[in-house]
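Quick log. Single chain, no ligands specified.
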Amino acid sequence: MDFKNLSLIELDELIKTGKATPQEIYSYFLERAKEHNSELNAFTTLPPDTPQWSGLPISVKDLFCEVGIRTTAASHMLENFVPPYESTVTARMKDAGYISFGKTNMDEFAMGGSGENSAFGPARNPWDPTRIPGGSSSGSAVAVAAGLAPAALGTDTGGSIRQPASMCGIVGFKPGYGRNSRYGVMAMASSLDSPGYFTRTVRDAGMLYRATAGHDAHDATSLDVPVTLDASIWERQDLSGLKVGIPREYFIDGIEPGVRTAIDNAIAKIRELGAEVIEISLPHTEHGVSVYYTICPAEVASNLARFDGIRYGSIAGTGGDITENRSAGLGNEVQRRSLVGSFVLSSGFYDAYYKKASAVRELIRDDFKKAFKQVDVIVTPTAPTVAWKIGAKGDDPLALYLEDVFTIPASLAGIPGLVVPVGYASPKDDASIDLPVGLQILGPVLGEEKCLMVGHVMEQAMKSVVESKKPKVF
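-> predicted structure:
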């Protein structure tokens, strides 16, 4: 049986009705992972030939610690690290009956928006393997989009779930900050990191959210608020009675024409489904990238200081030289952000940079609070472009940073964000091909249910458009 197009819910139904066994499903995806990984480089560690127990397979970004499973953060610094403890998210996933299905490739320590910064080579987009899949959760997006796994875990700090979901044509869901525990997830930026999911359907994302989210005493930033999803949201077929905000600051010069057309068509569908579409303003959006790339590197410098080859990580030479160890063990982007972070936190510069960025972050957060007094959800483009060629922007970090311009503000505000595929656009370098475009749906703090409800309705409404094309590996 061909399982690659099926959702988790559909696979579960096959098991319940006796039409398939967990072992058959596992073997099917294992064979696809082995067949296509040399081309797509989705996994840093392939799933084992024989699982320890039965259940539906979920691939895991190589940032979540799992007992006895090599976890590298796609870095030479941790190339042989096998954790002695389990992350809360993977523990809850397993408690819910799912099984870990390999560790997926990523930008090293989650630093990057293209998937090119892995110590083990770039992951490749299944729509066109010469192109990036987005990052940092690159391998997780590739595994799901290519049908190598039915779902995957990822993390999102400034767009690292939403952007690759858009560029690979699948669903990506980042719950609000604190909804999923960060315990056992290697930290990049502690005030921003948010575990989440890649799935084939919005309903699958909601199912995984119910399984893993909730308060965790091991994480001081975990929200002690019940996680609820009303089952009626999956029955809704229109958006009548809802107010949907369109922020004018997100429709700017620089969006590729095809991306703009796909998003405009999705907004027209939202109107057609009965929602009231309201133009809103998020006036401090223009400062989001600058704020993020001040705060994030500062937290990177703090979190990654421990990886010096003496306290943690691999060693180079005799092992006594911290600079030598870090130069050998950490890639260019990790070193770049660590250096920038050390600078903005240093004496004489803290007030000028980090303190000011933190203040502007609060203004961005207030923009969203005010907007959600007017509307139920906000919809925007996810990225200004579709996937570009591997290496095309490798020498220009700023160009890469600007690709996160539409995802960063929601991360700074700590609100939930969901991406659903809504169409296709041709890249500027090749008018003969079409690549996926995703719509970003943002909700207020604790507004995950609203995101999922709107996303599910849009998913059903756009199905004929989205399913008209398939990745090359299909």
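The chain is about 35% helix and 15% strand.
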